[in-house]
Structures are given as structure tokens and as C-alpha cells.
Design a protein that fits this description.
By secondary structure, this protein is α/β, with parallel strands linked by helices. The chain contains 19 helices and 24 strands. The strands form 4 sheets. Strands 3-2-4-1-10-9-11-14 form an 8-stranded antiparallel β-sheet, covered by helices on one side. Helix 10 runs parallel beside helix 14 and helix 15 runs parallel beside helix 19. The protein is globular and about 80 Å long. The two termini are 19 Å apart. The C terminus is likely disordered. Bound molecules: 2-deoxy-2-amino glucitol-6-phosphate. The site of 2-deoxy-2-amino glucitol-6-phosphate (AGP) has 13 residues, from helix 10.
Length: 609
């Protein structure tokens, strides 16, 4: 996730307006920043790695000439956060500049083809193929013009994008295109703006036009043209008045970042399906060759590791040790050696306990693999191979979208490994891959259909003193994560166990009306889990069950239930099943008057005011 902005202005210089707008978009990415303007028959560019304020101090982002320009604030997906990878990117001539938010899946092939035809690349980004493709299209047909060249170019792109291009040959316009990444226009008299989010231009205008997927936009002074990419036909669309306050706009109308990020999960999951093949392959090779594999993380990331240990075992027959990072050195430090592989999972890539484990393991010559949301973080620097999970910045303290993204990446790794090891049949592989592809839609459906229900359940149980979360098999990880969310956001003491373990002590806590949440994915453990529900019910517990649609056996036993669509394979079940638990924690916090974005005693390294 990155932030893009640009403007065509009548009287003002573009650069200071772009700078101020990027500052308002910094929550979308903050590892590098750049601007390009067009003036005097030339493209002018300033860009660098670092936060906007720091880059401005050294480079002065306000003194580019011209009334037309584009700007970008980056959250790295391809290529480290370095000046060379910061946007805008240019073609071979420097007459064309492009910014991009999204992921170009086929950039590798496109880059190889372009290089074979003499194009010279400077960065490691997927974006850089775009200016070169536009350049080539215009060279091949000099009368085509920038807008048509962009239109032809985007037809060659696979993946997600919101792009904007300017050219010194056509200095009166900006051409944008959108597919699966947000793009919205702002209109104020003759001045026209585009951005990935409304807050960027809200202080300037409240008249907005939302751009749809598959549309190309040509912006010039006082004029907005929208065309369909498929056939070039013109789409008429009037601006709408946005009633949001600036604070609401940053959260896109949601009351809190946490619920916004819960709702972002379908899109994040689509992004994680675009994990770079090359690195996923490399990582699965390292996992395959390791004598022992440790999955090391803290908090929510540890729960992702716990779930992943079931995935690796069930799909690829690979035993792994999921270990809480703060215990790693004590528990396993001495067993690690040159044949060990550590897969460290950390959203931020900066968690001290995780990095301490990694350092200890490096000193014993182990191989370090990283899964993180922050390219350029310490974890990416110390990893032999790392994968960026593509969730975009996480502003809420409670990890939600980053958890489901981590699970999706590790499920893909487990599948790759299974294939490499010949452990699953091709039919089963195809079946699981298809199910993985459908998860974004399934999560979308769960949010749509079950949010109101979780709200009601939260209302009913808001005064509960304690909660129990139980699951069997891989659902144990889901139970642990549901418990963590409820505790950290709503301050409800909660306990989680593998359901089979509950009768070895924890069950003594149960008294009438004690709420017990069961995660009842339809798998081999289902029958046994019914037994566990009966045990709790017999002692007067109130049963809240997460069930597969139409699971009548459990419906009959539950006091309250939330349904998840049918047919989700067991190994993928934590991804959809955790979503109602995230919503439950959120609405419990609301009911109990807690601010879910600011849990006490917990902090985030980046905050947005
Ligand atoms: C969970 O909601 C918390 N934010 C916390 O448990 C978090 O997952 C943990 O601190 C690990 O952070 P990391 O993934 O950035 O390493």
C-alpha cells in the first residue's frame, strides 16, 4: 500500500500542494517519498528514502517548478526503501514520469522483454516497467499520444495498480488508470486533484469523483475525462459532496482504524496472493533442506506461526517448532546450529525479542528466513531470504489484517513445499490453491453477513468477567488469537486452550453462564469437539460457537453461533474463522467504552493523528 497524489492547478505551484497532500497520506506508507512536476518542456523530480519531513529537510520538496505534478509516499513491496526505488520512476529518456500503488505480477517477464529490447532499468521495483512500456508504445506510434499509450500499456499489466503518468511532451495533462487499487478525484473550480484516498485533498475540496476498476482518467485544467480501458468509451460521472471530517476521512468513514483494517482484509488477502514467486520458491527450498525448522515470533505473529506449524506438517509433512521469541534462546538456543533454519515472523520486522532470537541463531550459523510487512526493516536486512506480506501499514495496535496475511503467505509456502516434496496429489494441490484464491471473497462475505451478529453477541456478553476460547487442531491457534484480541482491546481476562486440554484443569473455572467460545471448523476433530462442548454445557457454560453454515449438530448446543461459509479446508480455516473473533473483540471494546485503537500499556511505533 502506497499513497499517490497529483494535481493540475490554475494559479498555484504544484509542489507545495503535493507535499502537503502526501503528508496527509503518510499513513499509507512512509519509507520513501517523491514528487515530479512538468514545466518548461522538462520533467523535474525530487525523491529519497525516509519520512516526508526528513526528506523535505534535506531536499526541499516545495521548490519544483510548474503547476502540474504527481507525488508518492511509499510502502515498499518490491525493492528496499532506497532513493533509487522511490517513485516517481522514469523511462530511458527522462521525459516521462510515473507513480504507482499496487503490485504488477508479471513485471519480471515484462522487464526481461524490455531489457532485451535495450531499455535500461535503474530500480528493483515492479513499477519501473510502466514508464518503459509507455515509452515504447509512444516510440512505436508517435501520433498515439500519452493517454492512448497509457491505455495500451495497462492492457499488458497483470496485478493491481493505480498509476499516474506525466510527460514533458504533453505538459498540460496527467493520465491515470486504476485496477484493484484505490483512486479518487477532487474538483475545485479549475483545479483538479487525484489521490489514493480522500483525506489527501479534503482540506482543498469536498467535491470528489470515485474512479472504478478498469478506468483511465485524463486530467487537465478544469477538465476530467473518464474512459473505459476495455474499449476506450467515455464514462460520464458527476462529483459527489463528501461530508466527512478530516479525521473521519483518514479512517475512510470508519470510527476506528481497527475496524477499518478488519474490513481491509479481503483486499490484503488478494495482495498476499501476489507474493513474489521467486522468493517463495527460494524460501521453500531452504525449509525443505533444513534439518530442523523453528517458527519464531511474538503475539499475533506467534499465533500465525502456531497455525503454520499445522499447515507445514499436514501438507508438506515437515515438522516445525513454533516458539515464542522471548523464550527461544532459553528453550532452543543451544540446539540451533548450521543445519537449523529459523523462519522469523514479524509484522514490523523490528520486535526486539524476535530480533534477539534471530541474532542468537545467526551466531550459531543458522539460516534466517523472514516474513514481514516492513520491507527495509531490520528483519529484512538480516534474513537470507525474506517475503513481504503486502498488508500495507498497520495503524491499529491490534494486529488483524497482518495476521490473516501472514497465514495466507505461510499457507502458500506450505503448498509449495508439499509440491516440492511430492506429498500431496496434483488434484489436492489444485483444490487447495483454488480454495486459497477464494478466501478474499469468503472473508468479505463473513464481514458483510456476520458483523451485525457479532455486535449483538458483544452486547449480550459485555459484562462477562472472563472468557474461554477453545479449539482443536489448527483451530487452537485461532482460539489463542481470539483470546489475545479480546484481552488487549476490551480488557476482558480470557483463557485459551486446545479443547482436549481443558479437562486437565481449566474446566474447574466453569460456572453457570461462563462464556466459552468454540472454534468449530468442520474437520476431523469435529466429533470430539462436540464432546468438549457437552462437557462445558453440562457445567452451565454459555456456548458461543463459530460454525460452518448449516452445522445443525452444534447449532443445537450453542447459545449463540456465528456462521462461516461451507467447504473451507481445515488447513486454511484460521483465516476466515478468526475474522468474527476480531469483530467480537472490537465490539466488546466499544460496548465496554474502551478505545480499540489505543489499548492501554501498548504502543505502536507509528501513530496517525
Ligand atoms: C497483537 O495484536 C499485537 N499487536 C502484538 O501481539 C504483536 O503481534 C506482537 O507484538 C508482534 O509484533 P510483530 O509482528 O511486529 O513482531
Amino acid at each position: 500500500m502506497c499513497g499517490i497524489f497529483g494535481c493540475v492547478l490554475k494559479d498555484e505551484k504544484a509542489a507545495p500542494v503535493i507535499h502537503a497532500a502526501l503528508k496527509r497520506l503518510e499513513y499509507r506508507g512512509y519509507d520513501s517519498v517523491g514528487e515530479a512536476t512538468v514545466s518548461g518542456g522538462k520533467i523535474w523530480i525530487k525523491k529519497d528514502q525516509g519520512k516526508i519531513d526528513d526528506v523535505h529537510k534535506t531536499r526541499n520538496l516545495d521548490d519544483l517548478p510548474g503547476n502540474i505534478g504527481i507525488g508518492h509516499t511509499r510502502w515498499a513491496t518490491h525493492g528496499a526503501p532506497l532513493e533509487v526505488n522511490a517513485h516517481p520512476h522514469v523511462d530511458c529518456t527522462g521525459e516521462l514520469a510515473v507513480i504507482h500503488n499496487g503490485i504488477i505480477e508479471n513485471f519480471d517477464e515484462l522487464r526481461t522483454e524490455l531489457e532485451s529490447r535495450g531499455h535500461v532499468f535503474k530500480s528493483k521495483t515492479d513499477t519501473e516497467v510502466i514508464p518503459h512500456l509507455i515509452e515504447e508504445t509512444m516510440d512505436n506510434n508517435p501520433t498515439l499520444g500519452l493517454a492512448n499509450a497509457v491505455l495500451e500499456t495497462v492492457k499488458k499489466l497483470q496485478g493491481s495498480y493505480s498509476i499516474a503518468a506525466i510527460s514533458s511532451k504533453e505538459p498540460d495533462k496527467i493520465v491515470c488508470a486504476r485496477n484493484e487499487s484505490p483512486l479518487v478525484l477532487g474538483v475545485k473550480d479549475q483545479d483538479i486533484y487525484f489521490s489514493s484516498d480522500i483525506p489527501a485533498f479534503l482540506p482543498l475540496t469536498n467535491k470528489a469523483i470515485v474512479v472504478d476498476d478498469g478506468e483511465l482518467i485524463i486530467l487537465s485544467l478544469g477538465k476530467v475525462e473518464i474512459k473505459k480501458i476495455a474499449d476506450g468509451s467515455v464514462v460520464p460521472r458527476e462529483p459527489k459532496i463528501i461530508e466527512w471530517s478530516p479525521e473521519m476521512a483518514v479512517k475512510q468513514g470508519y470510527p476506528h482504524f481497527m475496524i477499518k483494517e478488519i474490513h481491509e482484509q479481503p483486499q490484503c488477502l488478494r495482495n498476499t496472493l501476489r507474493v513474489q514467486e521467486h522468493y517463495a520458491d527460494l524460501m521453500s527450498t531452504f525449509l525443505d533442506r533444513a534439518r530442523d525448522v523453528y517458527l519464531v515470533a511474538c503475539g499475533t505473529s506467534y499465533h500465525a506461526c502456531l497455525a503454520a506449524s499445522y499447515m507445514f506438517s499436514k501438507l508438506a509433512f515437515l515438522p516445525t517448532f513454533p516458539i515464542i521469541a522471548s523464550e527461544f534462546i532459553e528453550q532452543s538456543g543451544k540446539s540451533v546450529n548450521i543445519d537449523s533454519t529459523i523462519l522469523a515472523v514479524s509484522q514490523s520486522g523490528e520486535t526486539a525479542d524476535t530480533l534477539a532470537s534471530v541474532n542468537a541463531a545467526r551466531q550459531r550459523a543458522a539460516t534466517i528466513l523472514g516474513l514481514t510487512n516492513a520491507i527495509g526493516s531490520t528483519l529484512t536486512r538480516v534474513s537470507r531470504v525474506y517475503i513481504g506480506q503486502q498488508s500495507g501499514p498497520e495503524i491499529g495496535v491490534a494486529a488483524t489484517k497482518t495476521f490473516t496475511s501472514q497465514l495466507s503467505v505461510m499457507a502458500q509456502l506450505a503448498l509449495r513445499l508439499a509440491k516440492k516434496r511430492g506429498k500431496v496429489s496434483q488434484d489436492e494441490m489444485d483444490f487447495l490453491a483454488e480454495k486459497l484464491m477464494k478466501l478474499p471473497d469468503i472473508v468479505e462475505e463473513i464481514i458483510l453477513k456476520q458483523e451485525e451478529k457479532t455486535k449483538q453477541i458483544a452486547k449480550k456478553y459485555k459484562d462477562a468477567k472472563t472468557f474461554f476460547f477453545l479449539g482443536r487442531g489448527i483451530s487452537t491457534a485461532t482460539a489463542f488469537e481470539g483470546r489475545l484480541k479480546l484481552m488487549e482491546i476490551a480488557y476482558v481476562p480470557a483463557i485459551a486452550f486446545p479443547a482436549g486440554e481443558s479437562k486437565h484443569g481449566p474446566i474447574s473455572l466453569i460456572e453457570p453462564d461462563f462464556p466459552v467460545v468454540f472454534i468449530c471448523a468442520k474437520d476431523e476433530t469435529h466429533k470430539t469437539l462436540i464432546g468438549n462442548i457437552m462437557e462445558m454445557k453440562a457445567r452451565g457454560a454459555s456456548i458461543i460457537a463459530l460454525i460452518e453454515e448449516g452445522d445443525e449438530a452444534i447449532k443445537k448446543l450453542a447459545d449463540d453461533y456465528i456462521e462461516v461459509p461451507k467447504g473451507i479446508p481445515e488447513v486454511l480455516s484460521p483465516i476466515p474463522y478468526v475474522v468474527p473473533l476480531q469483530m467480537l473483540a472490537y465490539y466488546m471494546a466499544i460496548e465496554r467504552g474502551c478505545n480499540p485503537d489505543k489499548p492501554r500499556n501498548l504502543a505502536k511505533s507509528v501513530t496517525v493523528k
